[in-house]
Write a structure and sequence with these properties.
By secondary structure, this protein is mainly α. It is 54% helix and 9% strand. The protein has helices spanning 37-62, 75-87, 93-108, 121-133, 140-149, 153-157, 159-168, and strands spanning 3-7, 15-19, 22-26. The protein has a 3-stranded antiparallel beta sheet with strand order 1-2-3, with no helix packed on it. Helix 4 (121-133) crosses helix 5 (140-149). It is extended. The two termini are 39 Å apart.
Length: 171
């Protein structure tokens, strides 16, 4: 979607946006620096007040009709998801610690990459470099390919490129 923004040259505080043929007024918003604890706390308090006001207004407007009933094609899936959610066991801090440790072990484990199809030797070499930079182990055939490719005229023409590619990847 494209948005066209226009403003008044004589009054820069007035601006509007045109989105899908509709005109919408734009309002200046004060940016909050997240390192400023007082400003961040004030912004969170304001947001919570606004959310509470919306909840109160919703409750006030739906009270005469006895609440809101969802009737749509997705309602059965929502009810099923709520039942499944109730069946999920509660976790303790100890279980969470074990899970975090297990996930760290899995994420740091070296894996053998899935074999990819390449359209050119240059593309295959780039794929091999990406695997090395990401910390994956290469298969012996890919290691031999890299050694052979690094002696080829195609590689020698772009040797500076590959040196910079390695540096940018932290290798």
């Amino acid at each position: 979607r494209s948005v066209e923004v226009r403003f008044n040259r004589h009054d820069m505080s007035y601006a509007y946006g045109i989105v899908d043929g509709t005109i919408r007024p734009l309002k200046a918003v004060t940016a909050i620096v997240m390192l400023d604890d007082e400003a961040m706390t004030d912004a969170i308090v304001l947001k919570r007040k606004q959310m509470a006001a919306v909840r109160d207004a919703f409750a006030r407007f739906t009270k005469p009709i006895g609440g809101l009933t969802i009737k749509s094609e997705s309602a059965p899936r929502i009810r099923m998801a709520q039942k499944v959610q109730l069946q999920i066991p509660e976790t303790t801090d100890i279980d969470l610690g074990k899970e975090v440790t297990k996930q760290i072990e899995v994420s740091t484990r070296k894996t053998t990459p899935i074999r990819a199809v390449h359209t050119s030797p240059r593309e295959r070499y780039k794929w091999c470099m990406d695997m090395i930079i990401s910390g994956s182990d290469l298969q012996p055939t890919d290691q031999r390919f890299m050694q052979i490719y690094e002696k080829s005229p195609e590689f020698l023409e772009s040797e500076l490129y590959w040196k910079n590619y390695k540096k940018l990847g932290g290798y």
